[in-house]
Design a protein that fits this description.
The chain contains three helices and four strands. By secondary structure, the protein is an alpha+beta fold. The protein has a four-stranded antiparallel beta sheet with strand order 1-2-3-4, with no helix packed on it. The chain is rod-shaped.
Length: 193
């Protein structure tokens, strides 16, 4: 392998050397002799090439600058549109989320209201079955007291069967226990709980 590299480099040197000797040196010598014999032409060519180099640097730099500007501005515009698309999608998804949550809130209001009405209807039915229809006014007062109670908490009984007796503290500092059973509700002063 090393022999092949050496052979290649030696061949390349021979070829380049022959090209330089046969063509490049004679052409440079001929041009040099011509320019020395014609000083006006030499001056004109030198000035032309110098002016061309000086004057062409501005358009070349302008082209390079404008190319970089076009590339950077197109990247910025692409990133800006990408960012705007992401923001628009996020706003759309957030709107859908808020609409779903609002719908669930309305549904929970409806279910809660329906459940409360079902409970009150059940208690009315129990009251009518045990007390008769003439004491509906008493049931209405009890329901109003339920709705106007100050605080509601579950009674803590150690021997409780887990039925969850409801205790409502009334504004007149009485405690009302109710479990919607056929028996009547008890009104007990707050100290004897």
């Amino acid at each position: 392998m090393a022999f092949h590299c050496y052979f290649f480099l030696a061949s390349a040197d021979k070829i380049l050397g022959s090209i330089e000797r046969k063509y490049a040196r004679p052409a440079l010598d001929k041009i040099s002799r011509y320019l020395q014999s014609q000083p006006l032409t030499t001056t004109w060519v030198t000035m032309t090439m110098t002016l061309f180099a000086v004057m062409s640097i501005l358009p070349v730099l302008s082209f390079i600058g404008l190319s970089i500007f076009a590339f950077c501005s197109s990247m910025f515009i692409a990133l800006a549109f990408g960012f705007a698309a992401v923001v628009a999608l996020e706003i759309m998804f957030a709107t859908v989320l808020l609409l779903v949550l609002g719908g669930l809130l309305l549904l929970s209001f409806a279910v809660t209201t329906f459940s409360a009405m079902a409970y009150l209807t059940f208690c009315l039915g129990q009251h009518l079955r045990t007390q008769g229809r003439f004491e509906i006014v008493e049931w209405a007062q009890e329901t109003t007291q339920h709705l106007n109670s100050v605080s509601v908490k579950l009674e803590d009984n150690d021997g409780s069967d887990g039925s969850g007796v409801l205790i409502a503290h009334e504004a007149n500092d009485q405690v009302k226990r109710e479990n919607c059973s056929p028996s009547r509700s008890l009104m007990v002063p707050s100290g004897s709980t």
